[in-house]
Amino acid sequence: MSGHNKWSSIKHRKGAQDAKRSKIFSRIAKMIIVSAQQGGGDPEMNNSLKLLLLQARKANMPKDNIERAIKRGTGEGGDIIKFEEVSYEAMGPDGSAIIINCTTDNTNRALTEVKIALKKNGGKFVPSGSVSFQFKHLGHIVISTDDLDSAELSAIEAGAEDIERGENELLVITEPTELHTIRENLEKDGFTIEKAELTYTSQQPVILSEASLESFIKLKEALEDVDDVQDIFDNVTNSN
Predict the structure, then answer these.
(1) What is the CATH number of domain 2-76?
(2) Which of 83, 128, 142, 218 is most solvent-facing, going by the fewest CB within 10 Å?
(3) Helix 2-39 and helix 63-74: axis angle, to 10°?
(4) For the chain, domain boundaries
């Protein structure tokens, strides 16, 4: 019996891992499609696409999936689906604020499903601008290096707004419009870029009680399960 239970546990865990991987692949594919729609399918001429291809390879996304997403974005093969990027705002328990970014081929569906997830899990949909003023839009570049001093100097010379040190990693904070230029300069200086993305950083962080945090995590997980949701940003400092 114990062997059966162990096997069931392994199958359940593998199923959860497969679902998570599928969600990651779907998320990246949508971003590739949007990038190819907006800037073309040549990564050398499309910085956004170049970054996404790097992200896809790091996630071990199959090559066929990547190529299919690019072709859907450029309209090759007649398989054209127009995706749009939309952003919603919400409030959670005890002053928690949430920005929800979606990439969807049906904005009505995305809005409905986000609202349902919020309503069922104690969240509240709010008009645009209600919580976004609490966040700053920034670029984040993560460098993997053993020479943090050299990387920091290179980042400063490239025009970084701020820098945070980690263990063999450097977080370079940029203005959104400078993200690609600074990334390219750091690559030219020989540094390995682990990640480069646009993000929202909370300017008014909150710490939730244990009970409120549990409710918040449940709400955030429900939003993450919505197929059209790409990214979720919040102001809760003890949610990770």
Answers:
(1) 1.10.10.200
(2) 128
(3) 30
(4) 2-76, 85-240
Q: How many residues does the chain have?
A: 240
Rounded Cα distance between 52 and 47, Å, is: 9
Q: Name the class of domain 85-240.
A: alpha beta
Residue 17 dihedral angles phi and psi, to the nearest 5°: -65, -40
Q: Which residues contact 19 (CB under 8 A, 6 or more apart)?
A: none
Distance CA 200, CA 210 (A): 24
β-pair partners for 141? 172, 196
Amino acid at 56: A
Strand partners, 165: 170
Tell me the C-alpha distance between 229 and 114, whole Å: 8
Per-residue pLDDT of the chain (240 residues; tens, 9 = 90+): 334 444 444 444 444 455 577 888 988 999 899 999 889 999 988 888 888 898 898 889 999 999 999 998 888 866 667 888 899 999 999 999 999 999 999 999 999 999 999 999 999 999 999 999 999 999 999 998 999 999 999 999 999 999 999 888 999 999 999 998 999 899 999 998 888 888 999 998 999 999 999 999 999 999 999 999 999 999 999 866
**Longest CA pairwise span in the chain (Å):** 63
